[in-house]
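Quick log. Single chain, no ligands specified.
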Amino acid sequence: MTPHRPLRRIGIAMLAAMALAGCETAGTGAPGGSKSATAVNAVRATLGACMFPPPPLDQYDIKGIGALLGGAVLKSAIGLGVNALGTALTEAAKADVQHVAAVANVRHGQRIDDGATCLQLVRGDFSTGAPATPAELQPLGLGPDQHRALQDNRLLPAGRPDFVFEATFRPAGDGRTLAVVPSFAAFAEPLRSRLLRPGGERRVALHFAFHAPGKQAEDAANPSAALDLGAMRPGSVTRFATPQPDGGDPPSWLPVPGESQWVSTATLGGVYSITVTQWEVQEESKALGFMAALFNSVAGETKTTLEQILIRTEREKARKAAADADLAEQQLDRDRRNAATTAYATAATARAKCMADGSPETAQQGFNAMRNANHAALVAGIEPPFPAVPDLPFLDPAANRRACTDAIRAPG
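-> predicted structure:
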């Protein structure tokens, strides 16, 4: 028996014991990832400049939305159900679903649905040393602009990240309801790998819990949303549909495929946090309870209700109000032009008398009528027809007749 055989037997026994126990190993990193001893593998989130900015979104404000829709209707429309995070955590533990979480804080007065703010989640090795270079991000579909955005948001890891996600927020129009819209996801390495199932493919999901200071993310009363990114494997890069302006008045974005259900932040106040949890499922057949807990808590008609009531109805009201205002302005313009025409006709009659008579009294009447016609023309946006009207009549009838003759100009 060779000296190495006992060690070989011990190694086989240890491997069998680890396999029977369902032992797992943490990700070791693909080539290009920085796994130095000084780096800490972590997940971080922030709200800041977008890696992939959506089209500019003009801000709008529908005032009195509660009164317009009715409190009961609005409350029903945005009743998104209980926060699923607590139940999902319990079911995930049963199915051994892996997850990590990070928090992004919303400061007082910050509008995250302004079209220029994105939520970013990055998992990887972070250190106080040199951050990742643009070349290290390139395999994940991230160029210099995206590298700069992550650097500005202080989210650059020490090397190639393991997972990167970005989302923006689509406003519903009432200033307190929004949807999470994914824009980018890149998957380089799973959270953990089973020795007996070393494959890197995972079904990736994200959960967003919106909670006020002092409240735990798992609190059932918290507004929440969830996204299913589908199956991802090392090297997977997904660019989601870019939000497109809807051309409406007031403006917003069209609904984006893959966006979350509506989330109401009305009860959170001006300062709150968003806890983002990334989930990875390797064996979906063993995680049915988790998936049901995470995604089945959202009422199917919730989004449709708000789309119909809040978006379509209010925009139709806004468009009708704008059309009515335009018609009213057109009518007012017609009325002003009619008034100018009538005043011109009256002035023309008075001017004719002045040209025939020339007396100071007749001239004064003609001058007054012509000045009234000039004023009516200015109100209607027309050039005054009598540009040279004397202030006072002359004593000489011939001078008055000449003044009335010289005052005329055809109306515009």
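The radius of gyration is 36 Å.
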